[in-house]
Write a sequence for this structure.
């Protein structure tokens, strides 16, 4: 026996509302409105009714059919929305999670110290200058007032390249001082620059490696004197070693490219092989400096009657060892991950004067 249209409609609407998936909804649609569906079959029997009942019954079934079809359309849209919601929920990414569990790389002490000293000199108005590791004789020696027969050439234990076509031999730069010449030849004074970088000498023991690092400093202006040199280096050393009123000593010395020249010692205490900066009665040499020799200014295309300058050169590896208590220089270049894990620095701690040089 077939259901009354009201009952049929109510049942179908309940089924549609309860459909849990697009597939279930489609099955309901076929079972109701399909060719053999309940609604279709019942409508096919309308012809058997007496004509006066047929019209009213036909209208009821048309309304029923429309309601059920509308409900199915609405439900289909709701199910599609729910599908999308479920898909989005399943694919959700928590963008607040850390990108990696932990940064595992470490910054090498040489890189760290280069960043630290660059931060300090930048604060004093210096910019960074660069030159090539492979130098010619002119920039590495001659222009720096070290002529061919000069004894300083022998002291530098230079690595020479084979002779070129013109008979000259390139060298691995023995110091960063050639960057002074390169900078002067390409810039108009006044300027203040530092030039940190790699340097090379044929020498190897506890405190020397064939490749090492220096930082050169060059300040040229129209009223530069030794007082500026001393003030600048004092400010640098106190900031770098983080010691107030650091004991410092400027000892007269000789370099071909400066006159007068000095070597700078800082006060320290030596205790069972340990060195403490800023305390005690001992001295430790950390750099060479002086007023730029007039001939060197001239070789750099700077008129020595109008401009003066001071310069300095410092071993970066050495000040890194001193500041961070690293005993053996050779370990710097062993590429030992355990050593780097111990002496290295966090990659995200960029040294600044206001935020702290090293943490
Ligand atoms: N170039 C020297 C060296 O390697 C260091 C040096 C001394 C650099 C005095 C300078 C300076 O600029 O004025 O031993």
């Amino acid at each position: 026996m077939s259901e009354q249209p009201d009952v049929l409609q109510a049942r179908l609407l309940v089924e549609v509302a309860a459909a849990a998936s697009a597939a279930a909804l489609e099955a309901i649609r076929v079972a109701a409105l399909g060719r053999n569906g309940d609604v279709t079959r019942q409508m096919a029997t309308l012809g058997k009714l007496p004509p006066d009942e047929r019209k009213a019954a036909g209208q009821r079934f048309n309304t029923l059919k429309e309601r059920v079809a509308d409900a199915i359309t609405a439900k289909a849209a709701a199910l599609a929305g729910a599908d999308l919601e479920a898909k989005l929920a399943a694919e959700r990414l928590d963008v607040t999670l850390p990108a990696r569990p932990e940064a595992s790389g470490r910054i090498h002490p040489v890189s760290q110290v280069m960043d630290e000293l660059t931060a300090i000199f930048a604060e004093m108005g210096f910019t960074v200058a660069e030159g090539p590791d492979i130098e010619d004789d002119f920039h590495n020696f001659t222009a720096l007032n070290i002529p061919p027969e000069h004894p300083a050439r022998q002291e530098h234990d230079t690595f020479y390249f084979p002779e070129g076509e013109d008979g000259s031999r390139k060298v691995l730069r023995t110091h960063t001082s050639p960057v002074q010449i390169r900078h002067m030849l390409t810039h108009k004074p006044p300027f203040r620059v530092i030039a940190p970088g790699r340097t090379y000498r044929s020498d190897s023991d506890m405190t020397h490696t064939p490749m090492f690092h220096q930082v050169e400093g060059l300040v040229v202006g129209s009223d530069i004197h030794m007082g500026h040199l001393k003030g600048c280096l004092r400010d640098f050393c106190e900031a770098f070693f983080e010691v107030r009123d650091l004991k410092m000593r400027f000892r007269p010395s000789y370099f071909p490219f400066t006159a007068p020249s000095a070597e700078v010692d800082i006060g320290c205490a030596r205790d069972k092989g340990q060195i403490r900066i800023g305390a005690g009665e001992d001295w430790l040499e950390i750099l060479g400096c002086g007023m730029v020799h007039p001939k060197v200014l001239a070789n750099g295309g700077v008129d020595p009657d109008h401009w003066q300058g001071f310069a300095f050169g410092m071993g970066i590896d050495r000040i890194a060892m001193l500041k961070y208590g690293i005993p053996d220089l050779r370990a710097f270049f062993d590429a030992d991950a355990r050593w780097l894990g111990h002496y290295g620095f966090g990659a995200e701690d960029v040294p600044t004067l206001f935020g702290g040089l090293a943490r």
